[in-house]
Amino acid sequence: MIVDFAFDESVAKVFPDMIRRSVPGYESIISLIGLLAEQHARPDSYCYDLGCSLGAATLAMRSRIRQPGCRIIAVDNAMAMTRRCRSVLQERPAGIDVDVVCADIRDIRIERASVVVLNFTLQFIRPELRLAMLQKISAGMLPGGALILSEKITFSDAEEAWRMEELHIAFKKANGYSELEISQKRSALENVLIPDTLEQHRQRLAEAGFASVEVWFRCFNFVSLLALKA
Ligand code: GEK
Asked: From 146's CA, which of 62, 179, 192, 214 has a CA 20 to 30 Å away?
């Protein structure tokens, strides 16, 4: 029997290996988030890593941001993730301060944000709640602030969707996953990870108050967007 995917202890334990083998370009996205954050972080502001898991994006930001008075807030609602995230950060103390918070990102306050990272997290929020989430982020951002939104996407064209899905499956197979593991994971994620099209993302971001939205990374059905607050 396939049960819905959950971010529990067993997932947290293998998470870095799992996400690297499942998301094409993950490692590049992570290191480039450090670069984007360095460009957009402002003095005396907060940088948020929402759905931080083990803190990969937080570590990348921390290694590059040098602005005085800048602080990173890393949030995840899975205790198994935040516990490990804290120890990862303690193992390598350096750079600006980080607060790791175990909470639902829908419940936290966003304020004075110059950078907000949603690296493969919005896709786990129920679709009808996504606009309100982005509106809250936008309202808490400083003018010119940067939202980095990475997502698995779907396509309105069925053939394109099929081709991209096939490439993603080939990527996972090349990384050692079996047909059975791939199909079981797909079933487990079916009700949990609900992808939008790029067009849906663009419209929602515009509605939430972001002035410009650019794709800065894409591989198959995975994209990362840079959205700037008006
Ligand atoms: C990385 N950003 O390595 N509130 C807080 N956290 C949540 C919520 C929520 N409502 N829903 C899901 N999460 C990371 C990778 S993983 C992506 C992000 C993946 C958390 C969840 O617990 C998990 O840790 C993370 O979002 C998604 O750059 O596994 O495909």
From this structure: 192
